[in-house]
Write a structure and sequence with these properties.
Helix content is 42%, strand content 25%. The two termini are 44 Å apart. The chain is globular. With 361 residues, it is an alpha/beta fold. The chain is built from 12 helices and 15 strands. Strands 1, 2, 3, 4, 5 and 11 form a 6-stranded mixed β-sheet that branches. The chain has a 5-stranded mixed β-sheet with strand order 8-7-9-6-10. Strands 13-14-12-15 form a 4-stranded antiparallel β-sheet, sandwiched between helices.
């Protein structure tokens, strides 16, 4: 780097250093204000949940609207998620349960949604995630509910039917699968292991490239990575973050058949988010097994101007060809039009469960 360029860069770098010092001072002021909020709650004996999803969503949306650029709107969301997480942690620690072990997409979704200033509780199954939150071992949980290639994650849907927990928020991740092994090559590899959903999402690529290798289902992709870390004959399919977590080397990256592959995750807990101004409500409905019942079930939504964004069916397992319908609509359950639609639905359907109203992404 020549001396002339160095002279031009030095004042710019000095300016950046000065701005960084100002940002740090303001962050400390914000952190102290967050501590004072906690102290005020405690003094008023109003110690409620440290997580307020609607408030956090409002903060980030307001800043994105105020943002003059060139700092990107997505960067505002990422940076302030971590600022809010760190300040939340000063008030009280929060534990997040998710499908583990370390390096899973569920862990990535949890940290992107709640920030890194949390205590992590990796679980061996979706059932255990729900149980940990229900039992108070974790404040919140994060579970996948839908994949753009393979559709619904049925176990999560079944658990939502019976849990007392509510949906607090959602997070969508781009799913980029990587093939990894101890050596970074496939020499000596006898089997490829991954979660069944990942194997299905990569089946075309696997058939073209390794048609003769056994495919072994694992409880999670990160569990497959853990096994591969101790067995040189096993290769794993997992996200890129799993490779350094388990000291593996990536053989091939981006092996999913659909380049736009995404998974939607739901945050669950015991909190009832208030209206944030841009919300979604998730429902489970069931209707009598008769002609026109499903049409009649959806009519109150249309009549009240409530937009439906998702409609999924699951067998009720009664042996009578009956189904539960999982429905997402725009709006909060306390919005007048949504509340009226729900009141009408309660009067005419066989079953209605509101899974939660929460800030829409």
């Amino acid at each position: 780097m020549d001396d002339d360029l160095q002279r031009k860069l030095r004042p710019l770098r000095d300016r950046i250093d000065a701005i960084d010092a100002q940002i740090l001072d303001l962050l400390s002021q914000r952190a102290r204000a967050a501590q004072e909020v906690g102290e005020a709650k405690h003094a008023a004996h109003a110690d409620g949940p440290v997580l307020r999803p609607e408030r956090e969503a409002e903060v980030i949306r307001r800043l994105q609207q105020l943002n003059p650029g060139p700092f990107p709107a997505a960067g505002v969301a990422s940076v302030w998620t971590e600022i809010i997480s760190a300040c939340r942690g000063l008030e009280r620690g929060m534990t997040v349960a998710y499908l583990g072990p370390q390096g899973s997409f569920s862990e990535q979704a949890a940290l992107e949604h709640f920030g890194h200033a949390v205590q992590k509780l990796p679980c061996v199954s979706f059932d255990e995630v729900f149980r940990a939150v229900e039992a108070g071992q974790a404040d919140v949980g994060m579970v996948p509910v839908e994949n753009s290639t393979e559709g619904a994650v049925n176990r999560s849907l079944d658990l939502l039917l019976n849990t007392p927990l509510r949906i607090l928020g959602e997070r969508s991740l781009v799913i980029r699968h990587c093939l990894m092994s101890q050596s970074g090559s496939m020499d000596g590899i006898k089997a490829i292991s991954a979660h069944p959903q990942a194997l299905a999402q990569c089946q075309g690529w696997l058939t073209r490239n390794y048609p003769d290798l056994e495919r072994v289902a694992a409880a999670s992709n990160s569990e497959a990575a853990r096994v591969a870390a101790s067995d040189p004959t096993i290769a794993a399919i997992a996200g890129e973050v799993a490779a350094p977590a388990w000291n593996l080397q990536v053989v091939s990256a981006g092996i999913q058949d659909d380049p736009h592959n995404r998974t939607r995750f739901l945050a669950i807990g015991n909190i009832e988010p208030l209206v944030s101004g841009k919300d979604k409500t998730s429902l489970i409905l069931a209707v009598p097994n008769r002609a026109g019942a499903v049409y009649e079930m959806l009519a109150p939504l249309a009549a009240n101007g409530v937009s439906m964004t998702r409609f999924e069916s699951r067998p009720a397992r009664t042996g009578e060809w009956e189904y539960y319908f999982y429905v997402d609509v725009l709006g909060h359950r306390n919005d007048p039009n949504v509340a009226l639609a729900l009141d009408t639905l309660r009067a005419q359907v066989a079953y209605l469960k509101v899974l939660g109203s929460y800030p829409a992404p």
